[in-house]
Design brief:
single chain, mainly alpha
Length: about 80
């Protein structure tokens, strides 16, 4: 899957999570999928199979931001769960 296509899928998943009532595992799965996309993008970049364009760098930066956002949301849920116990 192309990076742009994967990013579109990840944005849709994020919107779905934001509209619903996600649990910690939902955010963990999103984090993992973003991490895989970043690794795949990194592999493509190091192998040099694609030309670096500004859009490629912007997509990678958006993936990084998405991963941090998912991680923060997971931490928030974990903190809430710990206070309930």
């Amino acid at each position: 899957m192309r990076l742009a296509d994967e990013l579109t899928v990840l944005r849709e998943k994020l919107e779905q999570l934001e509209r619903g009532t996600p649990v910690i595992g939902d955010w963990q799965r999103l984090e993992a999928r973003v991490a895989r996309a970043l690794v795949a993008a990194g592999c493509e970049l190091t192998v040099g199979e694609i030309d670096l364009e500004r859009s490629d760098l912007d997509e990678i930066e958006e993936l990084r931001s998405l991963r941090l956002y998912a991680e923060c949301r997971r931490f928030e849920l974990e903190a809430c769960c710990m206070h309930r116990e």
